[in-house]
């Protein structure tokens, strides 16, 4: 091959390589990423607001603290369990008074909730731009661990409210944000439901209350944020 032809062929090859290299090197990263770690655990904090029932003696909510543990199952399904404590208050109501003037004091509340939940991720065991939205639902138990209140002593024994132990139901939605492969932030907005029993004194005919139920369901809403370690 003559030198001029060899030089010309070399220049054409270099030019084609220069045109093709940017296209071959260019890649569009996927916004999706597979979730490798299967287990997560960590604390959460939040706030709870709850309906207090017809006569207003139920827990009204308060500051929420607790912890959660969860594990990824098949596909978009995972299981988790949570335990939380709600520090708040309730009104002490005296059924011997007029219906518009029942309150005679307040009592501290230390509501403790323990429940299990199923979580459904909208995008399965993956993240989208490091985020994974979900819905969640479950059930468990709720009980008040606070000691007897001084203001309850103002009432007759049959007029005192006692939360006892109740079924605790939850349903809601939220999202997780991956800060790294091992650290995740999570936000939840949860509808909650528990049962409150009516003190026997409210059903006495001479008190004048009509259609008093033995118990009623009180719904509420809780917002929380969590920091989770995954492995």
Which sequence of strands runs across the widest sheet? Answer: 2-3-4-5-7-8-9-10
Low-confidence stretches: none
Structural class: mainly beta
Average pLDDT, all residues? 90
Distance between the termini: 64 Å
As a percent range, the share of strand residues is over 45%
CATH classification class: Mainly Beta
The percent of residues in helical segments reads under 10%
Overall shape: elongated
Rg of Cα set: 30 Å
Major sheet = 8 strands, antiparallel, barrel
Number of helices: 1
- CATH second-level architecture: Beta Barrel
Secondary-structure element series: HEEEEEEEEEE
Number of domains: 1
CATH topology: Porin
Q: How many strand elements? A: 10
Summarize this structure briefly.
With 231 residues, this protein is mainly β. It has 1 helix and 10 strands, in the order αββββββββββ.
Give me some keywords for this one.
single chain; 231 residues; mainly beta; Porin; 8-stranded antiparallel beta barrel; two-stranded antiparallel ribbon; 1 helix; 10 strands; 54% strand
